[in-house]
C-alpha cells in the first residue's frame, strides 16, 4: 500500500491531463486482433471483465495511463434509470415588502423632519431584516455607505429566497440557513413646497448570507463552505469550489448527491465522474478522481487527505465536491461521499457579474458587516454591490433595479404629501419536465492492480498489462516465453496473447520507453 501511495504522490507532481477530445492519430503497431479484444473481452454482463496491471516499480506515467484506460472502459458499463415525460406547470412569483412613506410624520426626510437619510433593509424572512432596524438596537454600519440617520426594516419580502437547510443531504450534519437580503440607502434631495426628490448614489447591496439555524443576528453568521446550498438571485446553488487565492467562488446546480464506491462512476449528461482507488495509510487517505466528457478524459486528480477529507475538482462545466472518504473494516474498499454540480457559475470578486454590479465577499468582523473584493477567513456570504453611476433625482413612478433581480419602487399615490417606497418583483417559473426522457447512468470501472498482486496462471479475468518487460514483471514473463518482443527501441505497441492468463486473454500495451507506452495507451483509448 505504501508503494501505491508513493506513486500517487508522484502523480500529483508530474501527471498530465488528457485533452477534451482525443482525436490525434498515434502510430500503433498491433499484433493480434485488438479490435475483437475490445469488443468481446472488456465487458461481460455489463461489468468489467478485465484487470489493468501496472508494475510495482513502474513510472508514475504508467499509473496515470492505467487510470485513463480504466476510466474509459468504465464508460462502457452502466445501469439506467428512466423517468417518463411529465407535464410542465407555469406560475408567477409576485412579491412586495412592507412600505414606507418618506414624507409622513416622523418618517420625513426633508429639512423639517428628524431624519435626513435612511438605510432600508428587506429579506426573505422579516427576522433577518428586523435585526438591522435601529429599533432593535443593532443598526447597519458599512464603510461603503455614507452614514445614515436610521436603518429601517421593511420586513418580509416573499420574492427573496431563503434556504432553510444549507446541507440537504446531511454532508456536514448542519441545519443552518441562508437568506437573501437587500440594503439601500436613501437621502433627501431637492426640496420645495410641492416637489421632493431623493438620491441613492451608489448605496445598494444585494446579499446572500449564511446564518445558524433559526438565528437572525448577523454577528452569529457562519462561514461559507464548499458544498453548502445557498440562494443567489432567486435560485438555489451549491458552492462547488472556493478559490481563495484567485478570489473566485464557483456555484453550480446539483445533479447528483450520494455515495460512490471506488471503481464506480456516475454519469451526468455528457460527463462521467469516476472514483478511482481510495487508499488508507495511517491518518492519511489518497483519492483518485477522473472526469470524462463523452468518454474522453478531460481531468484527472489525486488528492492526499488528512484531517480535512473534503476537496473539489472542476472540469469544463462540471464540478465535483468530495465531502468525505472512508474505507471498509478490511480497508480494501473505499467510498466517497460526493456532490456533482453542472451549469457552473463563476463569481470573480471585484468584477461585474451583472451590468454595474460587482461581486464581493461578505465578512463578519465582530458583528460588523463589510463587502470586500478579497476572500477572507471570516467570509459569511456573497454580495453584489452597485458600481454604476450615481442614482439621483428619484421621483414618483421611478423603479430602481437591484442586481437585475428586484425593484425599489417610488409612488406618490397622487398625493403631493406622500412618497411611498417599497420593494417589488415578479417572475414566471416553469416546473416539471421539459418533454425529454431523463436517463441516469452509473457504472463500474475495472480494477487497477500491481504486477506483484497477480500471477498469469491464476488470473480470473482478462488482463491489460501496462509497460514493457523492464516496467512490468508479467510483461517480462511473456517476453521470456517468447510470446512478445519488446525492447528499448520498440514503438508504441499493442500485442494480444490469447489464453495466456489462465485461459484468459492478455493485451500488452508498451513501447521502448515510458513515452512510447503513453502513446500506445492514447491509441488504445481512441479505439475503445
TrEMBL record:
Residues 120-431 form the S-layer protein central domain. InterPro entries: S_layer_C, S_layer_central, S_layer_MJ. Residues 33-528 form the S-layer protein outer domain. It holds the Pfam family S_layer_C. Coiled coil: none annotated. This is S-layer protein (TIGR01564 family). It comes from Methanococcus maripaludis. The lineage of its organism: Archaea, Methanobacteriati, Methanobacteriota, Methanomada group, Methanococci.
Amino acid at each position: 500500500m505504501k508503494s501505491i501511495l508513493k506513486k500517487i504522490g508522484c502523480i500529483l507532481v508530474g501527471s498530465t491531463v488528457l485533452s477534451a477530445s482525443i482525436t490525434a492519430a498515434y502510430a500503433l503497431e498491433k499484433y493480434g486482433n485488438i479490435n475483437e479484444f475490445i469488443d468481446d473481452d472488456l465487458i461481460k454482463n455489463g461489468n468489467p471483465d478485465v484487470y489493468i496491471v501496472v508494475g510495482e516499480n513502474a513510472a508514475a506515467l504508467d499509473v496515470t495511463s492505467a487510470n485513463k484506460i480504466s476510466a474509459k472502459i468504465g464508460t462502457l458499463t452502466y445501469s439506467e434509470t428512466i423517468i417518463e415525460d411529465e407535464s410542465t406547470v407555469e406560475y408567477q412569483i409576485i412579491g412586495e415588502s412592507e412600505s414606507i412613506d418618506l414624507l409622513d410624520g416622523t418618517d420625513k426626510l426633508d429639512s423639517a423632519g428628524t431624519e435626513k437619510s435612511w438605510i432600508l433593509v428587506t429579506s426573505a424572512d422579516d427576522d433577518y431584516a428586523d435585526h438591522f432596524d435601529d429599533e432593535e438596537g443593532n443598526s447597519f454600519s458599512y464603510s461603503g455607505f455614507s452614514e445614515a440617520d436610521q436603518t429601517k426594516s421593511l420586513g418580509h419580502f416573499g420574492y427573496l429566497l431563503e434556504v432553510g437547510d444549507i446541507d440537504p443531504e446531511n454532508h456536514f450534519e448542519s441545519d443552518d440557513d441562508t437568506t437573501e437580503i437587500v440594503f439601500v440607502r436613501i437621502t433627501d434631495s431637492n426640496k420645495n413646497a410641492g416637489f421632493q426628490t431623493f438620491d441613492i448614489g451608489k448605496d445598494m447591496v444585494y446579499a446572500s448570507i449564511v446564518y445558524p439555524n433559526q438565528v437572525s443576528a448577523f454577528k452569529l453568521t457562519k462561514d461559507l463552505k464548499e458544498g453548502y446550498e445557498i440562494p443567489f438571485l432567486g435560485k438555489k446553488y451549491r458552492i462547488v469550489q472556493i478559490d481563495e487565492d484567485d478570489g473566485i467562488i464557483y456555484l453550480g446546480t446539483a445533479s447528483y448527491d450520494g455515495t460512490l464506491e471506488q471503481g464506480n462512476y456516475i454519469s451526468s449528461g455528457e460527463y462521467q465522474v469516476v472514483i478511482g482507488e481510495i487508499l488508507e495509510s495511517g491518518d492519511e487517505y489518497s483519492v483518485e478522481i477522473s472526469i470524462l466528457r463523452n468518454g474522453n478524459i478531460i481531468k484527472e486528480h489525486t488528492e492526499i487527505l488528512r484531517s480535512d477529507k473534503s476537496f473539489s475538482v472542476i472540469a469544463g462545466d462540471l464540478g465535483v465536491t468530495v465531502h468525505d472518504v472512508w474505507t471498509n473494516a478490511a480497508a480494501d474498499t473505499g467510498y466517497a461521499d460526493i456532490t456533482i454540480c453542472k451549469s457552473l457559475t463563476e463569481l470573480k470578486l471585484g468584477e461585474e457579474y451583472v451590468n454595474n454590479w460587482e461581486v464581493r465577499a461578505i465578512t463578519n468582523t465582530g458583528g460588523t458587516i463589510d463587502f470586500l473584493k478579497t476572500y477572507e477567513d471570516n467570509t459569511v456570504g456573497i454580495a453584489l454591490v452597485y458600481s454604476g453611476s450615481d442614482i439621483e433625482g428619484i421621483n414618483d413612478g421611478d423603479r430602481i433595479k437591484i442586481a437585475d433581480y428586484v425593484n425599489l419602487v417610488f409612488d406618490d399615490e397622487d398625493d403631493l404629501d406622500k412618497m411611498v417606497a417599497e420593494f417589488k418583483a415578479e417572475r414566471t417559473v416553469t416546473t416539471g419536465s421539459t418533454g425529454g426522457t431523463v436517463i441516469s447512468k452509473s457504472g463500474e470501472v475495472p480494477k487497477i492492480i500491481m504486477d506483484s498482486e497477480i500471477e498469469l496462471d491464476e488470473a480470473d479475468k482478462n488482463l491489460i498489462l501496462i509497460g514493457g518487460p523492464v516496467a512490468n514483471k508479467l510483461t517480462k514473463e511473456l517476453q521470456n516465453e517468447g510470446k512478445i518482443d519488446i525492447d528499448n527501441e520498440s514503438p508504441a505497441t499493442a500485442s494480444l496473447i490469447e489464453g495466456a492468463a489462465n485461459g484468459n486473454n492478455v493485451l500488452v500495451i508498451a513501447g521502448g520507453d515510458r513515452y512510447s507506452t503513453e502513446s500506445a495507451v492514447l491509441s488504445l483509448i481512441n479505439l475503445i
